[in-house]
């Protein structure tokens, strides 16, 4: 039986026969793959920029070294982006394997797992960037009420590289939010005419 280009067979979710629906599905899958690759690369870049950032300053013959471990927010940013990079790499491999096989597994438990993982990573990246950005503002402008110094006046190079890392981390968090919407679309479209798993071949 078919209606508006969608065929429904017993025990299966809708199987697309219309070329428009197939092309839309391919675009969504390709967008997901591109976003996951982008997130993986940017997350690695963020971790490397922040983790390798150091600057040595001599103050009255005393050598002081600025590094990311001096600020817990930056440690959180590095750890979060490392986790996101590993997660994204695993998801990229899954996407590539499904594309090579020419199938998309429309399995609810798997779709829920992917959606939940994307949600967790999105929240983590947003929280990490927010915390790092707040610390960066204090380092840049100080806090006169608490007598906190403007650290960036002494460690300009360190602050500039941290700023680049935070900007890269912001792109990661925004991309994760978009990706969460895509995985949400892939999940909730399974709750259509039928409610069991199926395999759709491209």
TrEMBL record:
<feature type="transmembrane region" description="Helical">
    <location>
        <begin position="73"/>
        <end position="100"/>
    </location>
</feature>
<feature type="transmembrane region" description="Helical">
    <location>
        <begin position="33"/>
        <end position="52"/>
    </location>
</feature>
<dbReference type="Pfam" id="PF04535">
    <property type="entry name" value="CASP_dom"/>
</dbReference>
<dbReference type="GO" id="GO:0005886">
    <property type="term" value="C:plasma membrane"/>
</dbReference>
<feature type="transmembrane region" description="Helical">
    <location>
        <begin position="162"/>
        <end position="188"/>
    </location>
</feature>
<feature type="domain" description="Casparian strip membrane protein">
    <location>
        <begin position="27"/>
        <end position="173"/>
    </location>
</feature>
<dbReference type="InterPro" id="IPR006459">
    <property type="entry name" value="CASP/CASPL"/>
</dbReference>
<protein>
    <recommendedName>
        <fullName>CASP-like protein</fullName>
    </recommendedName>
</protein>
<keyword id="KW-1003">Cell membrane</keyword>
<feature type="transmembrane region" description="Helical">
    <location>
        <begin position="120"/>
        <end position="141"/>
    </location>
</feature>
<keyword id="KW-0472">Membrane</keyword>
<dbReference type="InterPro" id="IPR006702">
    <property type="entry name" value="CASP_dom"/>
</dbReference>
<keyword id="KW-1133">Transmembrane helix</keyword>
<keyword id="KW-0812">Transmembrane</keyword>
<comment type="similarity">
    <text>Belongs to the Casparian strip membrane proteins (CASP) family.</text>
</comment>
<comment type="subunit">
    <text>Homodimer and heterodimers.</text>
</comment>
